[in-house]
Design brief:
Blueprint: H1 4-19, E1 37-39, H2 40-46, E2 58-60, H3 64-67, H4 69-124, H5 128-140
Parallel strand pairs: 1-2
């Protein structure tokens, strides 16, 4: 069988000859080079392994994971490490965000409690509203009474 790489190589050689000035009619018609090939799917159907095939045969349609097992394992390992790293990073970012929200919530609750205590004390005393208004005016800088 003439495989695609052999066909492409012969076509490129013919194109180079044409570009160098040779006429296509002057080129002889010749048989293509042949190569012994075995289809991976047929091997699996018949129960053959790679060790059962002679060295001069080429295996076509072989899966990437079978053709390059070390590279395939490295890719799987790298993707796994990348995903684990990503999830750990997202987990720590989430925890930091929740901690910040908790701190803000606590600060807000403490401010609310302080204002409640302040207002309770002010309401219980006589004339305290006038004192608060005067105090706010003094703070804001207006002297109007």
């Amino acid at each position: 069988m003439t495989t695609i790489p052999i066909q492409v190589g012969e076509m490129v050689d013919a194109a180079v000859r044409i570009l160098h000035g040779e006429k296509p009619l002057d080129m002889p018609i010749a048989n293509s080079a042949k190569e012994y090939v075995v289809d991976w799917e047929v091997m699996e159907q018949r129960g053959l392994s790679k060790a059962d095939i002679p060295e001069k045969y080429s295996i076509i349609h072989i899966p990437f994971s079978e053709a390059y097992p070390w590279l395939w394992g490295g890719i799987i390992f790298s993707v796994t490490v990348l995903l684990i790293t990503l999830f750990v990073l997202l987990f720590f970012l989430y925890r930091r965000e929740q901690g910040g929200k908790r701190k803000l919530s606590m600060r807000w609750r403490m401010k609310k409690k302080r204002w409640r205590w302040l207002l309770r004390g002010v309401i219980r005393t006589r004339g305290s509203w006038r004192m608060i208004i005067l105090y706010l005016r003094v703070i804001s800088g207006s002297r109007r009474e």
